[in-house]
Design brief:
It catalyses: a ribonucleoside 5'-diphosphate + ATP = a ribonucleoside 5'-triphosphate + ADP; a 2'-deoxyribonucleoside 5'-diphosphate + ATP = a 2'-deoxyribonucleoside 5'-triphosphate + ADP. This protein is an alpha+beta fold. It is 40% helix and 15% strand. The chain contains 10 helices and 4 strands. Strands 2-3-1-4 form a 4-stranded antiparallel β-sheet, with helices on both faces. The protein is globular and about 45 Å long. The relative contact order is 0.20. Bound molecules: guanosine-5'-triphosphate and magnesium ion (MG).
């Protein structure tokens, strides 16, 4: 089962969209396994967006993400990474389809209200799942990642003990 890291960005929190955004993932049928309000610091923002370091908008992106509290979430389910990206919509909200979060609730790329992991591997990196699995099952991180680069696998947004494993009462009504 996959995990994805979903984050309501500071504009989503300031605009009172936290409940609306959580609700979309809840109603879809995914399982919430982690949730917190959090003031992101510069070092974490830089690590999270390190692939965009060379982009011209990178400094403003770091300022944006650290400008106020964010809501950090882990959602779990079969195919949740790609499905969450569809629910979120295109990076540029003006190009995002109506019915998607960005399509319905935002107008600018630099204020696009929500983040979602772009691959199962990044889902693991961003949720800290690698560290949890390592603690519980002794998995070899370098083998699991396929890169051998352990530094890229440090848990980003959640620490051990912050995620909940549980079975929602509605589970048999969502999956046959
Ligand atoms: P995330 O889910 O937040 O990672 O968005 P994404 O995967 O749809 O886009 P990407 O990873 O390419 O970019 C990360 C974030 O950087 C975007 O969500 C925007 O907030 C910001 N960003 C990307 N491109 C631009 C841009 O051209 N201008 C500005 N101001 N911000 C940008
Ligand atoms: Mg991205």
């Amino acid at each position: 089962v996959e995990q994805t890291y979903i984050m309501v960005k500071p504009d989503g929190v300031q605009r009172g969209l936290v409940g609306e955004i959580i609700s979309r993932f809840e109603r879809k049928g995914f399982k919430l396994t982690g949730l917190k309000l959090f003031q992101c610091h510069k070092e974490l923002a830089e690590e999270h967006y390190k692939d965009l370091k060379t982009k011209s908008f990178y400094p403003t992106l770091i300022d944006y993400i650290t400008s106020g509290p964010v809501v950090c979430m882990v959602w779990e389910g079969v195919g949740v990474v790609a499905s969450a990206r569809k629910l979120i919509g295109s990076t540029n909200p003006l190009q995002a389809e109506p019915g998607t979060i960005r399509g319905d609730l935002a107008v600018q790329t630099g204020r696009n209200v929500v983040h979602g992991s772009d691959s199962p591997e990044n889902g693991k990196r961003e949720t800290g799942r690698f560290l949890l699995l390592k603690e519980k099952k002794g998995w070899d991180l370098s083998v699991e990642s396929g890169t051998g680069d352990l530094s890229s696998l440090a848990a980003l947004w959640f620490k051990e003990g912050e995620l909940c494993e549980w079975t929602p009462a509605q589970a048999p009504w969502l999956m046959e």
